[in-house]
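To whoever is on call:

I kicked off a structure prediction for a single chain this morning and the downstream step that reads the tokens threw a length-mismatch warning. I double-checked the sequence; it's 154 residues and nothing unusual in it as far as I can see. Pasting both halves so you can look.
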Amino acid sequence: PGYRIGWVLPGRWFAEALAVKATTNVSSATLPQMVVAAYLRQGRYDRHVRRLRSRIARSMEAMAAAVARHFPPGTRQTRPQGGGVVWIELPRSVDAVELFFRAREQGIGIAPGTIFSLHGQLDHFVRLNAAVPWTSQVEDAVATLGRLAAGMAA
């Protein structure tokens, strides 16, 4: 993503895609395009994705175990197929937006469920990013979140 290079196969919408490209940015840097093309040609991207999937799977398992250890009774979690997030359903007495602000004071970022809902039905859900290398710092952050949620649930 840092290279800001992408591609499109617009098929019958080629003219429209070209018009959008021409009006949003005139050109793309040639050197980064050549570097990414060489990387893809050499098969390195496929190897990278295989390793990345394995690492994310391990982090997801560690996150799920940490949530089970540290969060209050009545907490449930869901791991969607694909991706690297864990959805946490907290006890109904825990307001996810309030938890967001309390977590932020501790330097911890979470996503309250309400930002993913048009009607606010996810007010006691949070989404945690588990696609990060699992470290003692991440474990400590999950433990802190669990303590905060437990205090709010009491």
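Update from on-call: the warning came from a stale cache, not from the record. Cleared it. Sanity check on the structure: The chain is about 50% helix and 10% strand.
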